[in-house]
Amino acid sequence: MDRWANKYRAMVILLGYMGAGVGFVGLFIISYVLVKNLYSLIIHPDISSGVSLVLPGVNIPGLGVLPFWYWLISIFVIAIVHEFSHGVVARAWNIPVKNTGLVFLGPIIGAFVEPDEKKLQKTDDIKQYSVLAAGAFSNILLGILALFLLNFIFVPLQQSMVEPVGFTFDSYYNESLPFAQAGILPGTIITSINGEAVSDFTKFNERFSCLAPGDKVILETKGSNDQDNKKANMLSTNLAQSESKEVAVILAVNPTTPDKPFLGIKEIRNEYKIKEKYNAGWFKAAYVLIDWFAGFWKWLFLLSIGIGIFNLLPLPIVDGGRMAQVALKSVKGEEKGEKRYRQLSAFFLLILLLNLIGPFVIKLLW
């Protein structure tokens, strides 16, 4: 940390200023999103929540199941980058770092950096903001880097090895909506709409968005696949070559946009099959390697951005709370600022808890 802070001091300080600005923007955005999401849950209880815990083995709507090793490695990388950034910015401002090291919690490997809190609190507000926001800002930058590698290197390589065959879904919103009523089971592959072939959901949605509630459409499908025995986003040869059938569907009214049609499905994802060339030998090994890294960068991007933004919440346990505390004390004074900070953090802690438990309560009552 000292080496980086001394060698790149001007750049680190500049990035620290940028991080402080991004931190406050992120603080307002994540606060607004949490309040808006809770409002949407109350007004439209049949819509999936936009807030959930991201843990290994959990099926994330629209993204699939988070594998344990992706989660473990990503958490370690994110923690190292987050804590290292706090330390580098602190040292660039000549604030001592009292302790640093690795943490082992069962299988989880983390890290910690402990700047001298007393000296940090005696510095200018902007210096405190830059140190406090450094972790979240670096996680956002890491997420952007992961997204770049995913979209410009690994996805193009992976897509050159597979062929799209349509899209599928993992669950219904409820049993009264079109797909459930038509008997189209989760895992069924949709390959065309009104006789026009669609290789992925984007192409399907281009046609679908031109329709209206009450319209009748003819979908071509391939038999549902067993989600427990198949890796997400990859078809077996037998399934890809299974017999097609046509199903008539009457479109429903979209609950959030009444003039738009609605299928009543969620956790939608595209399906592919591996090209014959990549099913054996070194070509298969190359495909497996590219596929693993594509999955890793995807989850690293999502986890790094998610953790970075979460750390900007105005809560006592994260960096955003400390930033809000410094700002409120600066504006309101020591005593009133601390009081307002406690009220703000209690409010958003309640909002966060309601966002997390709200969907479960709604499912019990719905």
Keywords:
366 residues, alpha+beta, Pdz3 Domain, four-stranded antiparallel sheet, two-stranded antiparallel sheet, 11 helices
Model description:
The protein has 366 residues and is of the alpha+beta class. It has two domains: 2-157 and 295-365, no CATH class; 164-274, PDZ domain (Pdz3 Domain, Roll), CATH 2.30.42.10. The protein contains eleven helices and 14 strands. The chain has a four-stranded antiparallel sheet. Strands 1-2 form a two-stranded antiparallel sheet. A hairpin with a 7-residue loop joins β11 (252-253) and β12 (261-262). The model is unreliable at 225-240 (pLDDT under 50).
List the helices and strands and how they pair.
Layout: H1 2-7, H2 9-43, E1 59-60, E2 64-65, H3 68-92, E3 97-105, E4 108-115, H4 117-121, H5 125-159, E5 162-168, E6 171-172, H6 178-181, E7 189-193, E8 196-197, H7 201-208, E9 216-222, H8 237-240, E10 244-250, E11 252-253, E12 261-262, E13 265-266, E14 269-274, H9 281-310, H10 319-332, H11 334-365
Antiparallel strand pairs: 1-2, 3-4, 5-14, 6-13, 7-8, 7-9, 9-10, 11-12
Helix pairs in contact: 2-5, 2-11, 3-5, 3-9, 5-9, 5-10, 10-11
